[in-house]
Amino acid sequence: MTFSEFINKLTQEQVYDWWDNHVPTIDIKKAETDHWKYRIEKDGRKFSFKAAMSDLAEHSALSLNKFSSNDTYRYLFCEKFDFEIAEDLVFDSTEKNDFITFYNKYIKNTGAFQEFIRYAYSVFSNSKINLYKIRVAIADRNRATIVIGMREVLSYYEKEGKSRISFMISESFYESIKEQFVEYDIESFVGEDQMKLSKYEISSWDEIPNSLLE
């Protein structure tokens, strides 16, 4: 059966019995014959996604066709059975060199950029967001962006000696702060909670109101 059919056939009782009673009895390292980047995680226990799904299919007496470890399948399983994904964060020399090029070529206001990095780290550390859901990237060669899920929530780039920083904020908070701190641009998003990506231009980090950072 396909992976989607496999997920639909499984019950919560089967998955939880497998995870709570069967998985602790096996040698997970031996089961993971190859190294995979993504692992399912629950109650402090981790198991490579592909190896786990193959073992679960065998334990549940279900025939599972060859499948890949992709975002759709991982989200499908985790959402239905309340697991998280743990990702091995591996950075190679290409990514390192890309960042060095970006930093040397486009970052002149080093103090503001360092504060941006510290701020982002503090936000995500305090909010306990699963790191698997966060993406940090260099966009358009000159912009550092932070994305949660599919949406940019923070970004930084420089233009004409000024730092331009974007914050994802709620519609209600935007209304309370818009007179205090004027943005140079704004994007609105429609959804269950109306949000705005509000963009500000500064010379130093101290210009940002504490209320916005908080």
End-to-end distance, in Å? 49 Å
Overall radius of gyration: 22 Å
Uncertain spans, ≥5 residues at pLDDT below 50? none
Average pLDDT, to the nearest integer?
A: 87
What strand order characterises the main sheet?
Answer: 4-5-6-7-9-8
Task: Walk me through this protein's architecture.
The protein has nine helices and nine strands. By secondary structure, the protein is of the alpha+beta class. The mean pLDDT is 87. It has two domains: 3-87, no CATH class; 93-213, Aspartate Aminotransferase, domain 1 (Alpha-Beta Complex).
Condensed summary:
This protein has 214 residues and is of the alpha+beta class.
What are the defining features of this structure?
41% helix; 2 domains; 6-stranded antiparallel beta sheet; 9 helices; Aspartate Aminotransferase, domain 1; 214 residues; 26% strand; 3-stranded antiparallel beta sheet; alpha+beta
Can you lay out the helices and strands and say which pair or pack?
Layout: H1 3-9, H2 12-22, H3 28-31, E1 38-42, E2 45-48, H4 49-59, H5 71-81, E3 84-87, H6 93-106, H7 110-127, E4 134-139, E5 143-148, E6 151-159, E7 162-170, H8 171-177, E8 185-189, E9 195-202, H9 210-213
Antiparallel strand pairs: 1-2, 1-3, 4-5, 5-6, 6-7, 7-9, 8-9
